[in-house]
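Write out the bound-state structure for flavin-adenine dinucleotide.
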Amino acid sequence: MKIIVLVKEVPDTYGDRKLDLETGLADRAANDAVPDEIGERALEVALTYADKNADTEIVVMSVGPNTVPGTLRKALAMGAASAVHVMDDALMGADLGLTGEVLAAAIRRTGFDLVLAGNLSTDGSGGVIPSIVAELLGVPAATNLSSVEISEGAVAGVRAVENGSVNVRADLPAVVSITEALPDARFPNFKGIMAAKKKPFETLTANDLGINAEDESKGRSIVVAVSERPARAAGVKIIDEGDAASQLADFLVQNRLV
Amino acid sequence: MSDFPADSILVLAEVSPTGTVQKSAAALIGAAAQVGSPIALVVASPGQAADAAAIVATFGATRVLVAEAADVATSLTVPGADALAAAARLVAPEAVLISNSIEGRDVAARFAARTHSALAVDAVNVSRDDEGIVAHHSVYGGSYNVDSAASTGPLVITIRQGAIDARAEGQPLVAEALEVVSSGAAAATITGHTEATVAANRPELRGAAKVVSGGRGLGSEEKFVLVEQLADTLGAAVGASRAAVDAGYIPQTSQVGQTGVSVSPQLYVALGISGAIQHRAGMQTAKTIVAINKDAEAPIFEIADFGVVGDLFAVVPQLIDAIEARKK
Ligand SMILES: Cc1cc2nc3c(=O)[nH]c(=O)nc-3n(C[C@H](O)[C@H](O)[C@H](O)COP(=O)(O)OP(=O)(O)OC[C@H]3O[C@@H](n4cnc5c(N)ncnc54)[C@H](O)[C@@H]3O)c2cc1C
Ligand SMILES: Cc1cc2nc3c(=O)[nH]c(=O)nc-3n(C[C@H](O)[C@H](O)[C@H](O)COP(=O)(O)OP(=O)(O)OC[C@H]3O[C@@H](n4cnc5c(N)ncnc54)[C@H](O)[C@@H]3O)c2cc1C
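---
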């Protein structure tokens, strides 16, 4: 089975993330670039399956700038067999539709039985790339799964939705996205880090994939205004000496919050 | 030629598998009415669509397109996307509004990819300027406001649940059956579903005016009940940190933050939550923030309007009594 895992590189969420107020694009210099945690969890799903099924090939794939090889190398060190990086200045600031087209084209070129993705990235937080990719590839999408069972020829799982959960199943080839209910990823070990250096690593441009980023016939999402909200300031802080509850109740009453 | 108004805004009204119109539909129609003529689409199992259409009209849809699809309950996303594509062809809308729910996002994604339309996600409002419809986003935990628009064609917008207060005036039902030709796109199969049990008298987290959240500091599922008790005293919804969810105190649907729900209530009370940046990303736009934490250095105090350094197991029961006393 050939599994492609989509891993996005994102600004580290442990820092204050910034947007460029001129362009509205993520300010990539403001934070460390790290693999998105949910993409690593998706990779863990693939690695766990590969642990039990020797005949599994895992390809990690990412669209992004020249820092992305660091993210993909980490994924290789964790156990993926090869990596595909799509990098092109023409894709800078790509919207969801264009990113989806690029990923779908790269996935088609690589070939797959199963695509595994995160349900939602921590920077764009669109939560739509997996379904866009499935639509463009003409395959079923089983998204937002909090449990995944991969078998020969099919995938099944529990899809967590707002008011409950749904059991779903899809024949392969298919696209699956997972939630953070699935386990954290393993750490790369020394052997993995050394092995990663020799693994196949392909770098592609939009042109290689037959994508015209400037196609004006397609609707694109454009940023028309950006502004920064003033940071919040701290208010009162009291130490409980037995009457904090009473003072807090007064505060709530004064502010008509009771 | 379409006989729909030039300023038509197509709204996909979300209907549950059992045929109930979701609350989000009223907000979507409310938002659409601010910028154009709200035309609603209802996609439901045969026999369920008529009732749903009648409800959607009371929310203010001037016309309701009704698509009955035998496979909505068994086939994931594709029946909704197919119906939406048919409706958009008929209406030629300026924008398409869909709930930013899990199912809504999937339908929006397939529809936008199929029709090469621009997609604006997780918008908190919509407006109109000289060039058309604009989506307003609150990003990076509310640190930035971003406006987006389509370069060409309709803008497909998913609207954050609970973000829109506007409601439109009810309209007389003008329903028409929509003919949908199946795209034949491969879909995942729905093999079963379980509805979550929600406390009947407690507000929903998304869009709640007051939220009381608990973190790892609660220590156990049994003791997390204290969060619920304070919430009920205040008439608030219940939320949680990811650590509380991971520890199994409460289901994931209650998680507030970066990878959970974003809330903007009048009052947010954080109990035993340290205030990690990823948690703050989901609540720092609250009007008033109250925190109770035994660690005076906890980062939650940096954004709290009223902070109590103390043991929550001592303070919260007293607070419940004090509020009850002041209510009398
Ligand atoms: C704050 C912010 C707001 C934005 N809002 C919009 C908007 O409203 N409309 C719009 O068109 N664009 C928007 N963008 C741009 C959009 O985020 C990018 O196009 C992005 O590459 C993909 O979207 P996402 O991160 O939201 O993906 P999601 O759909 O949230 O990602 C889900 C999963 O898809 C996979 N994936 C996504 N992107 C990549 C990638 N580049 N490489 C590998 N795997 C990937 C990962 O597995 C990920 O976990 C926004 C960007 C930012 C920073
Ligand atoms: C990619 C990513 C996404 C994430 N998304 C989210 C998200 O969506 N939401 C989220 O919440 N987190 C998220 N996190 C996790 C986040 O980093 C923190 O780990 C988490 O918020 C911590 O939860 P907590 O505050 O309950 O626990 P802790 O940080 O352990 O804090 C517990 C607090 O309780 C206090 N306490 C203990 N006992 C008492 C007592 N008796 N009385 C009073 N106070 C007490 C302690 O002083 C402490 O401050 C994410 C992390 C990553 C990497």
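---
The two ends of chain A are 58 Å apart (CA to CA).
Residues 49 and 150 of chain A are 7 Å apart (CA to CA).
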